[in-house]
Amino acid sequence: DTVDCRSSNKIVRLPGLVDVHVHLREPGATHKEDWDSGTATALAGGFTMVGAMPNTSPAIMDQATFELAKQLSSSKARCDFGIFIGATFTNTTTAGNFANEAMGMKMYLEETFAPLPLKDDINVWRDHIMNWPDNTTPICVHADGRNLAAILLLGWMYNKQMHVCHVSHKEEIDIIRDAKKRGMRLSCEVSPHHLTLCDKDIPRIGAGQSEVRPKLGTEEDMKALWDNIDYIDMIATDHAPHTYEEKCSAKPPPGFPGLETSLPLMLTAVHQGKITLEELVKKMHTNPIQIFNLPEQPDTYIEVDMDQEWVIPKKPLYSRCGWTPFEGLKVKGKVVKVVLRGQTAFIDGKILVEKGYGMNLRSKEYLAEVERLKEQKTKTQLSFVGEKS
Amino acid sequence: DTVDCRSSNKIVRLPGLVDVHVHLREPGATHKEDWDSGTATALAGGFTMVGAMPNTSPAIMDQATFELAKQLSSSKARCDFGIFIGATFTNTTTAGNFANEAMGMKMYLEETFAPLPLKDDINVWRDHIMNWPDNTTPICVHADGRNLAAILLLGWMYNKQMHVCHVSHKEEIDIIRDAKKRGMRLSCEVSPHHLTLCDKDIPRIGAGQSEVRPKLGTEEDMKALWDNIDYIDMIATDHAPHTYEEKCSAKPPPGFPGLETSLPLMLTAVHQGKITLEELVKKMHTNPIQIFNLPEQPDTYIEVDMDQEWVIPKKPLYSRCGWTPFEGLKVKGKVVKVVLRGQTAFIDGKILVEKGYGMNLRSKEYLAEVERLKEQKTKTQLSFVGEKS
Ligand SMILES: [Zn+2]
Ligand SMILES: [Zn+2]
Ligand SMILES: [Zn+2]
Ligand SMILES: [Zn+2]
Ligand SMILES: [Zn+2]
Ligand SMILES: [Zn+2]
Ligand SMILES: [Zn+2]
Ligand SMILES: [Zn+2]
User: Fold this and answer.
1) How high is the ipTM of this complex?
2) Residues in B touching A152 (Cβ below 8 Å)
3) For the whole model, what pTM was predicted?
4) A147–B146: do the CB atoms touch at under 8 Å?
5) In this structure, are residues B297 and B81 in contact, taking their beta carbons and an 8 Å threshold?
6) Closest ligand to A288 CA?
7) Virtual torsion, Cα A120, A126, A131, A132, nearest 10 deg
């Protein structure tokens, strides 16, 4: 880590952050977010790679919709990205065709803000798990309580790489911890909101605004997550923007924005001694890259002002949703600069890369780009060595 | 096997049959069955050992109720028996006290004819599984679909010996087979009614009369059970008597009697070539004894007329329920004699042992009785050898 000095604050250089769980709302609900605003939001939060969830409208679940998502993202994204394929009742035999090109497969086993719930049909769950090709990308599950236990059994039985999204409550982390101890091939993520908010925060945030899936837990749930933080592989925002008007409506949709507030909230936890900076980098960069088998981004890093204290404003800089449940919270630590594949992509609140600069992490073009940047670096180093000698 | 000749029919001697899953209805519903009538029914069916389920009224779930069951059974049973302890919301820390003295623990994860449903609280399930002492008696589950998958995960995580009651449908046997293939410590039972009846039989039996949990499956389910018969460890009747009046009422309680019809139905399957007699003996004697760690009963056997053809009558010989869903079915094979611990307990339709002759298989008295019978046998053999020489 490079430690710089700037106005007496400690500036730390970290690798580009990875968020494997974001909802970019395009296609279908671009008034909440789209590939442009969502990836700008990511950069503003220090993220250089995101994984886009498939519960859009239409949902990403077959050739036509996967191609649509690839096309929209390639033309509009400002940071690098992967695209998830959604598991449905109808694609048990075809979802696996996307196992290498997708970020992973997403299975919704609970009712949530999704056109993709698989309800309680264990046959369909089993078919999906059995049919997903071995040694490709992870199977990610939104599953609570007994549904989590059930899907983990299937993952174990068919020896698939399982990833549990947004673990939120004591009952789930207890199961995940003990399954890991028993030797299961299993990873999980936690959201900053489940680590920092609980049911006691609902009056402050507002009842409708507080709606999120999984629901905010109790203080005991939050404590269980921190107590077992060593068993949690990564932080993922579950960035799920809805407009403030929608959140104030009679039927508020569940979900919080999270990309711009994730790192500041987690750096504040570092300052509070709840987690070390080293562990945080593992959970926001190293582990997601390793577990989702993502390429390292060459010449990519972020600069963070560790000591800057600020109050989270109501409106995010770039997200279209226009609100945050963290409004008014004092945090310590701020992203000041993001360099993505050699280009300054964000500095002092401004996005400097164009729409379409972001690349699909699973594409052949991405591998070629990584190769090109490596060669360029080698040449620079060789010429530098040449100058020296 | 001893093969005798009697009126040109083949008489076969088999070991005493074991049924690990019966409902004897006492305490609480002795108009349906009690320890006397239920164990007489068992003997009439060729069973010399039964395991009594805890969903009586009161349920068997603590010291007082376990003692009550022990007392009722000891004074009234005519065949040997074990008693299950029921898992409840309130006995997660105390059920384990009965781990050695009970036949096993029974967990009801579904709504059924039971005061003991554990509903969908995975925390309570987990506490029960974790707290059940290792290397004692099995944990038996009534669980369908995803609940089965969930409880099997917990059993695997905490390395407990799990037993799945009355597997009935394709979805459950698929999971059990694949979990066994993957190396899980797991056994299961099937009932003769799920092997021989399906939804096409409902019109014949009557809608209310056909109510049973798990429900009768489709022909495909029945085929899946037979296709995977090698993965099914035992036949258990799930003898669940209700009176014919109750079965004809507006709210018919689920359950079939099964003790008197189990062996004839299974012997008919032997004649049909669906299973060998050797395999049947494994599933009705050897495996239950081994899996439930039951004592072998000395000087105990049954004699079966393999070739006797008969039509199952409406009224069982001994069960108080007074009906059977198998009424009118032609079967081939009949129990003619039962010898239990040296005494003829049943012959030609008559019970010859008194109430209270049956013993608790998990009691110290039982071990002493086994010892006594062994010594007696050794003496007889020695004196016989003496005479010879
Ligand atoms: Zn989710
Ligand atoms: Zn939960
Ligand atoms: Zn999500
Ligand atoms: Zn790295
Ligand atoms: Zn049952
Ligand atoms: Zn079923
Ligand atoms: Zn039963
Ligand atoms: Zn034996």
Assistant:
1) 0.92
2) 153
3) 0.93
4) yes
5) no
6) 4
7) 70
